[in-house]
Specification:
This protein is of the alpha/beta class. Helices cover 22% and strands 25% of the residues. The strands form two sheets. Strands 6-7-8-9-10-11-12 form a seven-stranded mixed β-sheet, with no helix packed on it. A five-stranded mixed β-sheet has the order 1-2-3-4-5, covered by helices on one side. α1 links the parallel β2 and β3. The radius of gyration is 17 Å and the shape is globular.
Length: 223
């Protein structure tokens, strides 16, 4: 899982799964396009790509500009541990690198973008985050992984793009969203456009029956 938001002034990555570097290369991009990473939670398919990006910038790039990585409490410690586990003894980056733990309702000005966090329903013990991001006057809301929660309603109102996880078609999956569940609340989602991500096999099998647009690898959206 990884979604790159680009504007003239910079690039912001929503989550960073283990295949992010490969996906960037497939799109003709490199980690140099990324200034900020916003992580929704600490599951491997959402944050384990960070060390691979760092290794690329350490050994394959002449990167000088800063990289800031944000995530829920405990993210900084887990990224330090993951980096040491995957690449023990890797040298310290020559570019400024900062890991920042954030809590729900935190607002951060990234210069070219502004983000605000909200807590979603994914962990029974811990915090998972969604993000409300404003870039060049456009609003993007990212649910992260979550079951239905009232916390999605307000951020999604009038959003230019609502990126929402959809792990199953109609089968309940604990603390994940189903298409049936999302459809039952569609009148409360005031976003101008909704994209489904994180699809399970049954979602893909019912792709022609979905009430919302399904994202695909390499998809480009202009707002």
């Amino acid at each position: 899982m990884a979604i790159l938001v680009q504007c003239r002034q910079g690039g912001l990555l929503l989550d960073c799964g283990p295949t992010t570097l490969t996906a960037l290369r497939s799109s003709g991009l490199t980690p140099e396009a990324i200034d900020v990473i916003l992580l929704s939670h600490q599951h491997g398919d959402h944050f384990a790509g960070v060390p691979f990006l760092l290794l690329h910038e350490l050994y394959e790039s002449a990167r000088k500009k800063p990289l800031r990585v944000f995530g829920p409490p405990g993210t900084a410690a887990k990224l330090h541990a993951l980096m040491e586990l995957l690449f023990p003894g890797a040298r310290t980056p020559e570019f400024p690198l900062e890991y920042v733990d954030v809590t729900p309702d935190s607002t951060t000005d990234h210069g070219f973008a502004r983000s605000k966090t909200f807590e979603v329903h994914h962990f029974s013990n811990g915090i998972a985050l969604g993000y409300h991001v404003v870039v060049e006057g456009k609003t993007i809301v990212f649910s992260g992984d979550t079951g239905w929660t009232e916390a999605l309603v307000e951020p999604a109102q009038d959003a230019d793009l609502f990126i929402c996880e959809c792990s199953s078609f109609d089968r309940p999956v604990d603390r994940h969203m189903s298409h049936a569940e999302l459809t039952s609340h569609r009148d409360r989602i005031g976003a101008k456009r909704t994209l489904l991500v994180h699809p399970g096999d049954d979602v893909l099998a019912h792709a022609d029956e979905l009430d919302f647009e399904l994202a695909y690898d390499g998809m480009e959206v202009t707002l």
